[in-house]
Structure formats: C-alpha cells, structure tokens
C-alpha cells in the first residue's frame, strides 16, 4: 500500500513538472531517450537559483574559496591517474528471458515479464564512462572520455590556481558543471540520470587536520540545505563504516533526503587524503607539493570534498514543495511552496483586465519597476483566480495586481496602490507602488 502511495505521489510530481515547465523528457517527440532530461522555463530558473545559492554561499561569501570552470573533455591520462579507466564500473547482469538489463546490486523483485523468475547471466563489470574521440580518426590514440565527475579538473589545475589566487592552505577550489555516467539502469525520474550537473568543492588542508575540517564541512553543508527550503525532518546523514570507505578515504558522510521513493543521497562529503594530488603527481611527473612560507613545511595537501548533485537537489526541492490544499469541497489548490530565494519566479504582475489600456499601462510601469530587482513575470491571461492558481503551481511567492483602485477611481487615498498577494497564506495587502521593491526585498532576505 505504501509503495502504491509513493508511486502515485511521484506520478503527480512528474505530471506537474511537465504541466508547469519544470522538466521535460529529452527528445520526447522522438519517443524520448532514457536517462536524459530537459529543463523548461520554470525548471531552468529553479536550477539556476540552486547553482547561484551554492556559488554565493560556498565561493563568493568566503575568502578561502575560489572557483574555476573546467572542460568536459580532458586528457585521457587524467582518468588513468584517477583510477576511472580501470575501476569506475558497476556490476551488470542481463535476463536471458526478457532481455532486461540491471545492476547486479539492484535486481528487481518482480517476476520476469516472460513468466516466472528472471534468468540472469553472471555479473560482469561495466565501465560507466562515455567514450568519444578527439580528432578526425577514431582510434585508441584519439580516445577521450566525457568526464564522470568535475573534481579531477580541479586537482589537475591545483598548482595553476594556487599560483594565481594568492591563497594559502587551507583553501578551496569550487566548480559547477556537467558530468556524464553511462548508468546501466537510470531510474526515479531525474534522480539517477546519464547526464547531470555537479557542484563540487575540493578544500585543501594540512595533513593531520582531516577530521576537524571534515566535521566542519558536514555541519555546514547540512545547514545549507535548510537555507534553500528543504525541511530539517526530511534530512539526515549516513556515516560510512570503515569497511565501506574507499582505500584512500579516512571518512565519508552522505547528506540524505527522504524522497517519495526512499531515503537517498543528495551530497557526499569525503576526506580523501592526498590520493588525487599524489596520483596526478605520479602520472604527470609534475610536483603537486605545497610549501608553507610560515612553517617552512613542504607537503602534498589533503582534501575534504563536498560533492552535490544539482538535479537531485532540484528534485528534492520539488518533492518537498508540492502541497495540496482543499480550499472547498472538491476544490484542491496545488501549491509549490519553494523558499523564496529558490522559487523560479519571485513576483508576478497582473493587470486586472487585459482590455483596459489604463490598467495595462500602469501594470507595465509596475512590471518595469520590479524587473531589474527580481525575476518577474507578466501575466494577463484568463481571470485573476486562474492566474493565481497558475502562479501557485509554479511556486511564485508574490503576485501584484493592478486594479481600478490603483488608478484612483475609488478615491485618491488608494491612488498608486496595488494588492500584494502572498502565495502561502493567500492574504492580500494593499501596498504603495513605491514600497514594493523594499518590501519584497525584505521578505526575500527574511
């Protein structure tokens, strides 16, 4: 019963994402392609807001972190050094009866569609990296890979960034960008995809300070999710047991979120030692050592790596924001209760009627007043009630309506005032046009 309820909820989420322009199936007109998704107008804004929130909080508001923007394709030796060429794989099995294909550690419990139990092959390792070729000849000498993570570019550029940024240990290098993994079985909507976006920070530290910095970053990252609107009660952490850690890691914690389909990872925070820099030093022959001018010590820095998935965070935000409220018997209002800083559109502007030039002119003035400060949407389609419902489903925190009172037709005391409607409470306040920008700015900060 619980599984059916969760499936029904996800069906509502998927339907809303298409209906309101959050997420579309890639190449849908051709039948779609599994594991790839396009973000519509609302989704593109939501995704940008997540990226901006992370970049502002992790990079711009700190003095000990700088950013880079590395290429998707790098020298193939980068992936040899990191171990991805030889060990970045999942165990894969096929069903001889239905020809289905799954990860060996995630086999379906259902019966085979061809009848009875599945008839699986022996598990074999499947490398998750997408291969391509750089140059006109498709041979092994020109083989390259689409990056499966953004972190390795940071390690490869460590010395260059260190020399130009005037930073000292401890400091971090951050990057946001696309990554690609040829998943055997993409699933759970956008949660596990073949093309996705990562927000990664490599925070370089002095050896011996790993445990302290790892604890700090776990606490900071867990708190950050609450600032973008994920409920505290849906967040948790999973601490890796010693036998679960990679051979080079001293600690790893996953930030988890209670999705409708189960508690799953949003972000991993790992203390990776100096494995990555040491490997690149070994494979490139270039020194990755850091010299401390104050202590006169020379060492290869250790690193703590918080690595988050943009697409997973967006899906978590959508699932957490989705709300159904019964306004009257049989009348259900669907509201996306995003935190204002994350909401795709911050404010929508409505002229009460679309066929009254004075209302349109004044509404345009208000729209142009707000647009430089907030992501603002113009909406004059249908009646006011339908416009409110549309904006509720998109998650717009505030709607501004310009009516005949705004024009002073009911008395000079209401001239140049508008109604400001709150998404969550549906309360409407009469506000002076001149007060809109400071008031909405204050509520956004709050």
Structural class: alpha+beta
CATH superfamily of the largest domain: Bira Bifunctional Protein, Domain 2
In total, how many domains does the architecture comprise? 2
Number of strands: 23
What are the low-pLDDT stretches, counting only 5+ consecutive residues below 50? none
Global Rg: 26 Å
CATH class of the largest domain: Alpha Beta
Assembly of the depicted chains: single chain
The overall average pLDDT, rounded, is 93
CATH fold topology of the largest domain: BirA Bifunctional Protein, domain 2
The helix content, as a percent range, equals 25-40%
3D shape: globular
- Percentage beta strand: 25-35%
Sheet with most strands: strand arrangement = 3-9-10-16-13-12-11
Largest sheet: 7 strands, mixed
Q: What descriptors fit this protein?
A:
2 domains, alpha+beta, BirA Bifunctional Protein, domain 2, single chain, 12 helices, Rossmann fold, globular, seven-stranded mixed sheet, 23 strands, 446 residues, five-stranded mixed sheet
Task: Describe this entry's structure for a reader.
The protein has 446 residues and is of the alpha+beta class. The protein folds into two domains: 2-73 and 147-318, 2-Layer Sandwich (BirA Bifunctional Protein, domain 2); 345-440, Anticodon-binding domain (Rossmann fold, 3-Layer(aba) Sandwich), CATH 3.40.50. Helix content is 31%, strand content 28%. It has twelve helices and 23 strands. The protein has helices at 2-19, 41-60, 76-82, 84-87, 151-156, 158-165, 210-227, 275-284, 310-321, 357-370, 384-394, 436-445, and strands spanning 23-25, 37-39, 65-67, 89-94, 101-103, 124-127, 131-133, 143-145, 171-180, 195-205, 235-239, 251-259, 262-273, 290-291, 298-299, 302-309, 322-328, 331-336, 347-351, 376-378, 398-402, 417-422, 428-432. Strands 3-9-10-16-13-12-11 form a seven-stranded mixed β-sheet, sandwiched between helices. A five-stranded mixed β-sheet has the order 20-19-21-22-23, with helices on both faces. It has a three-stranded antiparallel β-sheet with strand order 5-4-6. β14 and β15 (298-299) form a beta hairpin. α3 packs across α8. The radius of gyration is 26 Å and the shape is globular. The mean pLDDT is 93.
């Amino acid at each position: 019963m619980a599984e059916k309820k969760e499936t029904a909820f996800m069906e509502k989420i998927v339907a809303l994402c298409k209906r309101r322009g959050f997420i579309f199936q890639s190449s849908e007109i051709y039948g779609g392609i599994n594991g790839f998704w396009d973000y519509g107008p609302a989704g593109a804004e939501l995704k940008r807001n997540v990226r901006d929130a992370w970049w502002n909080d992790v990079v711009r508001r700190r003095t000990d972190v700088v950013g880079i923007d590395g290429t998707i394709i790098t020298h193939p030796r980068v992936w040899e050094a990191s171990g991805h060429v030889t060990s970045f794989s999942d165990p894969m099995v096929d069903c001889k009866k239905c020809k289905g294909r799954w990860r060996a550690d995630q086999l379906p419990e259902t019966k085979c569609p061809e009848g009875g139990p599945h008839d699986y092959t022996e598990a074999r390792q499947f490398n998750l990296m997408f291969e391509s070729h750089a140059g006109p000849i498709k041979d092994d000498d020109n083989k390259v890979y689409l990056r499966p993570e953004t972190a390795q570019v940071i390690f490869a550029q460590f010395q260059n960034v260190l020399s130009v940024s005037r930073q000292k240990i401890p400091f971090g290098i951050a990057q946001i960008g696309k990554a690609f993994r040829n998943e055997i079985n993409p699933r759970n909507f956008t949660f596990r995809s073949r093309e996705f976006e990562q927000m990664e920070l490599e925070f370089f530290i002095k050896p011996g300070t790993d445990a302290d910095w790892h604890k700090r970053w776990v606490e900071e990252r867990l708190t950050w999710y609450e600032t973008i609107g994920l409920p505290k009660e849906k967040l948790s952490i999973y601490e890796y047991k010693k036998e679960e850690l990679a051979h080079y890691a001293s600690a790893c914690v996953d930030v988890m979120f209670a999705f409708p389909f189960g508690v799953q990872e949003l972000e991993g925070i790992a203390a990776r030692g100096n494995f990555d820099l040491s490997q690149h030093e070994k494979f490139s022959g270039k020194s990755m050592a850091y010299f401390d001018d104050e202590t006169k010590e020379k060492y290869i820095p250790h690193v703590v790596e918080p690595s988050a998935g943009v697409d997973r965070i967006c899906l978590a935000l959508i699932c957490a924001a989705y709300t159904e409220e019964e306004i009257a018997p049989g009348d259900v209002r669907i509201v996306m209760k995003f935190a204002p800083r994350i909401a795709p559109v911050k404010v929508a502007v409505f002229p009460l009627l679309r066929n009254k030039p004075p209302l349109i002119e004044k509404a345009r003035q208000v729209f142009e007043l707000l647009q430089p400060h907030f992501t603002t949407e113009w909406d004059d389609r249908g009646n006011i009630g339908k416009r409110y419902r549309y904006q509720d489903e998109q998650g717009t925190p505030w709607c501004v309506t310009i009516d005949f009172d705004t024009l002073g037709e009911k008395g000079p005391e209401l001239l140049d005032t508008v109604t400001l409607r709150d998404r969550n409470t549906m309360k409407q306040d009469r506000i002076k046009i001149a007060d809109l920008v400071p008031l909405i700015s204050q509520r956004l900060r709050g």
